[in-house]
Amino acid sequence: MSTPTNRTELTGKYTLDPAHTRIGFVARHAMVTKVRGSFNEFEGTATLDGEDPSRSSAELTIQAASIDTRNDDRDGHLRSNDFLAMEDYPEITFRTTGIAPTGEDNFDVTGDLTIKGVTQSVTVPFSFEGQATDPFGNVRVGFDGALVINRKDFGITWNAALETGGVLVSDKVTLELEVSAIKTG
C-alpha cells in the first residue's frame, strides 16, 4: 500500500471490511503453549481526520458468539458463563475516547472496551499501514494494533489448577487487530 503524501486524503468516513479484517486473540494454555483465536462477526466504523488525528473516532461491535479457536468444545466453553457469558453479554464493544499521534504513522488509540458487561479504558498502539484504491475503485486504509489485557479485569476469572503447578488459562490475553476499512464518505 502507498502512504498518501497529503494526509487530507485520509479524511472521511470508513466502514470495516470484515473479509479483510482480523480481530484475534492469543492466550497461554497449560503454561506451555499458545491458543490463538478470532472473532468472525463484527462491524465497525471510523471517522478519520487526516490533518488532526485527535479529532478521529472509531466504534467496533463484536458478536461474542462468533469466537473461533478451531475447536468446538473449547469455543463452547469460551461462550459459557465461565468466560464470555454470551447469552447475557452477546456483544463486545470498543469506542474511542481519544487518539494521539506517537510518530509519523503511529497512534495511541484510547477507548472504552466492554467485555462481559465490564468497561475498562484501554490504549491500543496502532500503526497506519497505508492507503490504496482497490480494483473495484474502493479507497482502503489499513491499520495494525495489539494490546495485552488482563481478562480478570473484565470479570473473566474461571481457571483450573494444574497438577504440575500453574493454571490452565493465562490471565493475560493479547488482542490483535488487523484492520482494513473502506471509505464511504
UniProtKB/TrEMBL annotation:
<dbReference type="InterPro" id="IPR036761">
    <property type="entry name" value="TTHA0802/YceI-like_sf"/>
</dbReference>
<dbReference type="InterPro" id="IPR007372">
    <property type="entry name" value="Lipid/polyisoprenoid-bd_YceI"/>
</dbReference>
<comment type="similarity">
    <text>Belongs to the UPF0312 family.</text>
</comment>
<feature type="domain" description="Lipid/polyisoprenoid-binding YceI-like">
    <location>
        <begin position="13"/>
        <end position="182"/>
    </location>
</feature>
<dbReference type="Pfam" id="PF04264">
    <property type="entry name" value="YceI"/>
</dbReference>
<protein>
    <submittedName>
        <fullName>Polyisoprenoid-binding protein</fullName>
    </submittedName>
</protein>
